[in-house]
Structure formats: C-alpha cells, structure tokens
Amino acid sequence: MGLSVGTLSARAPKSSRLVPPKADRGATDPLRAPRARAAALPSRSNQSNHNDRSGLLNALIHALQMEADRSAIATTWAAGVTLALICNLVNNLPAGLLAGSVVSASHVPRQVASAVLIGVDLGPNLSVTGSLATIPWLSALRRENQQVSAWSFLKLGALVMPPALLLAIAGLLITGSVR
Fold first, then answer.
1. Out of 29, 80, 113, 166, which residue is the most buried by the measure of CB atoms under 10 Å away?
2. E strand or H helix at 96, and its extent?
C-alpha cells in the first residue's frame, strides 16, 4: 500500500495512546510507584518467619551470624567446606537455595558469602549425586561407550575437588578481593 510507519503513527488519534501522560504515571504504573510496590511486599524478616515452619532457617541464620561475629576467617573456611559436603548429600540445587536464603538474611561479610558460592560450585564435583548436571554428562559418556562408575567418579572427585576447594577459599582470603 505504500504507507510508511511515520504515516500510520501520524494518523493515530491521540485518545488511543496506551501510555498515560507523564504526570499520571506514578499513580497508574506500578513500576513507577516504588513506595506503593514496597508497601505491598512482605518484609524479609516476615518472609523468613512465614516460610520457616520448622525453625531450621532461623536457626541457621542465627548460627551463621554468631560464627561470623566470632571469626570471619574461620567462618569463611567452615562455610565453604560445609556447603561442599552438604551438596553431595542433598544435591547442590536445594543446598544452594537454602544457603542463599541463610546468607542473604544473616548479613555476613562478603568473604563468607563468596565461600558459600565456592562450596556450592566446587563441592558437587566430589560425587555423582552432587549435581544434576552430572547425569547428562554420564549419559553422554555412555553413548560414546565410556563407562564411568559412581565409585570411579568418587575416587577422581576426592582427588580433584578438595584441593580445588581449599585453594579457591585460600585465594579468596589471601587476595581479599570480593567483587
């Protein structure tokens, strides 16, 4: 028909605008009304209390805060190693979600939070159960006629993961750089 985009937009009536004038946006656009949006959301402390029916989350938050207050360096080591081991017991996804909730609510030093991330990232390399991502890799290896048993995976993981974990946490503490 030969009409350009500019021609079409010039002919559109002004009453069909979808966006309200700038003066009215705060009242009608929830993205531009931060106070109203913030008031509608539950506070972090109410969320953790509401979702924590067993009391486990609050107990972990309290324990992490207490240990970090005593010694941030010892807590950094303990958090990284503990999370690495827990990831192999329950998988890194639920362990990481729980650890993320605990760390964000406990207001610990950044090095402790970084050690938790290191533990969640490197810990699952110890055993087959550590990460769901291991299952597709083992399936791909089996398609290529490479058999890797859980025992051989554990032996190699025990050789590789602990030094990598300890060196990563040591590097975190030595450099002191957390970005």
1. 80
2. helix 92-106
